[in-house]
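hey m, so remember when u said the tokens were messed up on ur end? i reran from scratch. heres the input so u can diff it against urs
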Amino acid sequence: MFNERVRTLRKQRGMSLRQLAQATGVSPALLSQVERGTTDPSLSTVRKLAAVLGADLATLFAETPPAEVHHSRPGQRPLLSAGADLMSYERLTPGRSDLEVLHGRLAPGQATSEEPWSHPSTECAVVVVGTMSAEVGGVRHNLAIGESLTFDSRLPHRYFNDTDGPAEYLIAVTPPVP
């Protein structure tokens, strides 16, 4: 489980909870809750933990080595939260280091992050419900159902929904990043 993986990696690196908190900028109280499994951290916190612990998202969420064939079911998938007032991702792929596929839902007014960010990957998003926008390298791209956008994720980017209706999309990232 995620909480056990964080605790194991922290101890393997010889770090106390306070040292990890200082290195990530996350409070020791929140990290303690994360390690005990009493709270789900935001995606921003997960990224900070992954960077400091030298792990990718797949490693942090891996429970066992991924199966050759992974059957993913709605309602049984891990959720990755982007933070308060931001959206969450439903993880469709197992903990692997070569590919991450996520199902994103954006309510009206929601975004994946407050500011565009970048990471060393290739990303492809396809809209499956409603319409939404992507900001990539400072350029806005409006996307409707069935439309996709593929780009070098080293360009600062984010997805947002400034319409009156919900939007859903699938996103593939290779390789996955913290």
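this time it looks ok to me. The chain has five helices and nine strands. if urs says something different then somethings off w ur setup not the seq
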